[in-house]
Amino acid sequence: MQQSEQIVVGRIGAVYGVKGWLKVQSFTDDPESIFEYSPWLLSQKTERELKVVEWRRHNNGLIARLEGISDRDEAARLTGADICITADELPALADDEFYWRDLIGMRVVNTNGYDMGVVEQIMPTASNDVLVVKANSNDGFGKSERLIPFIQSEYVTAVDKEAKQIQVEWPSDF
């Protein structure tokens, strides 16, 4: 793999059976799309690049057999490893779509020009994602954190990737 930013897209779970199959926890929107990336860079104490030989759904989860892994003991050494890909492998997005990693660290300013702070993380909820904004240390309203729904054209009015700024229609004191 090229030297590029690594993105964690899943995690290796427990061993399944005696022939080297492993449970796979996918962090991608469509869980099965994790198998579109190849090879995987497995990151634990060391890094190891492996290809998926075959995979399938099992109950409510996914299982996979990796190249060169043919028994339970070999598979057990991989449990808990992060499944990484390079950022270059991520699909291109439309102009109004964003990866969470692109939004984290952006400054949030409301439509009145008030600096609300910086996006610290993003929480998924059943209805929409929520920006967790760490307020500035000298916030005029005494806020330490703001939770702002990431709903474009309703609360999020603009995202400027170059300026690393998100403009929101959100009250300064909320």
UniProtKB/TrEMBL annotation:
Its main location: cytoplasm. The keyword rRNA processing applies. The keyword rRNA processing applies. InterPro entries: PRC_barrel-like_sf, PRC_RimM, RimM, RimM_N, RimM_N_sf, Transl_B-barrel_sf. GO terms for molecular function: ribosome binding. Residues 8-88 form the RimM N-terminal domain. It comes from the Bacteria. Keywords: Chaperone, Cytoplasm, Ribosome biogenesis, rRNA processing. GO terms for cellular component: cytoplasm; ribosome. SUPFAM superfamilies: PRC-barrel domain, Translation proteins. It is found in: Cytoplasm. Residues 100-173 form the Ribosome maturation factor RimM PRC barrel domain. GO terms for biological process: ribosomal small subunit biogenesis; rRNA processing. Binds ribosomal protein uS19. An accessory protein needed during the final step in the assembly of 30S ribosomal subunit, possibly for assembly of the head region. Essential for efficient processing of 16S rRNA. May be needed both before and after RbfA during the maturation of 16S rRNA. It has affinity for free ribosomal 30S subunits but not for 70S ribosomes. Belongs to the RimM family. The PRC barrel domain binds ribosomal protein uS19. HAMAP family: Ribosome_mat_RimM. This is Ribosome maturation factor RimM. It comes from Idiomarina rhizosphaerae.
